[in-house]
Amino acid sequence: MPKITDFIEDAGPVGIVAGIGAVILAPVLIPIVAGIGKPIA
């Protein structure tokens, strides 16, 4: 099985920044998306 570090090495600096950004933004974006989605649904 491929390791997460292998993907990071293949992706390079952009992949590392994107991965860190996703981890940081996920807790912020998920409640916002859930909050927007509920009234529409």
The total tally of domains equals 1
Q: Roughly what is the average pLDDT, rounded to an integer? A: 76
Per DSSP, the total helix count is 1
Q: Any low-confidence stretches, pLDDT <50, length ≥5?
A: none
Shape descriptor reads elongated
Proportion of residues in extended strands: under 5%
Radius of gyration over alpha carbons?
15 Å
Largest sheet: none
- Note the run of SSEs as H and E: H
The first-to-last residue Cα distance is 39 Å
Estimate percent helicity.
over 70%
Record field, number of beta strands:
0
Structural class: mainly alpha
Structure commentary:
The radius of gyration is 15 Å and the shape is elongated. It is an all-alpha fold and 41 residues long. The longest helix has 37 residues, at 4-40. It has one helix at 4-40. It starts with a helix and ends with a helix. It has one domain. The model has no long low-confidence stretch (mean pLDDT 76).
